[in-house]
Amino acid sequence: MKKNNVSKYLAYAFLVLLALVWLFPALFGLFTSFKSQGDIMDVGFRMFPANWIVTNYLKLLQNTSSAPIITWFFNSLFVSTTHALLVVVVVSLAAFGYTRVHFKGRDALFYGVLAISMFPSAVNIIPSYKIVDSLGWVNTYLAVIIPGLGGVGNVFLVRQFMQNIPKEYDESARMDGASDFVIYKNIILPLVKPVLIVAGMFSFVGSWNDFLWPTIVLSDVKKMTITAGLQLLQDLYGNYVMIGQLMSAAVIAMIPTVLLFVFAQKYFIDSLNLNVGIK
Question: What is the pTM of this model?
């Protein structure tokens, strides 16, 4: 019994240490955003501001020409929300096809797509840009919303969850005359709701945090997402000139993802239980 307690305490200590490693940079950035430039440039390390100020946030919000942070914020909110909603639709339909619709080569096709997805994403940047350019989507929101809708990771997650739903549900519905779409809409979707919410959240966070792709396909300052805008801010406020405002922008960029994880923890736990939707 004592051995089990020691293992438990060691596990807790490791998790606390890991949490501190992740939290420290975020907290340092948060506190730095409330520091004056003189406070930031002081010799030596200081976690907390000597004098708390909100000037960095006020100056950042007032700059609506070269660094419209509010516009970038709502651009990211629109892009990420739209992307996440479309991912839920595409991924749920794909997972339904891979688990409930029988066709020749179904499993081979899925594992083939899964194997292809193992290649680094950077390999696809040039072909993806060529496709987006040929469709006339460069410098439009479609360029950052549509690519990645059928992410294999999310399809795999939902497929594994959906496979655990008994096929007897489908057979009973078909005996009552239900079509595949009716089964998908009225039976399968309600049962896989927890994992679809998790897939949507993963997609939202991934789209929100995406930096490389938006900087490639978006050039209009007014259309930039907040991550691409942070790169522009680094050029404007970098070189230790306006570090406080740069940290303020980073803090604003973190708000949606932090709130999302705080209020959606229940669904992450439910997604680990493959039987959660089956009552």
Answer: 0.84
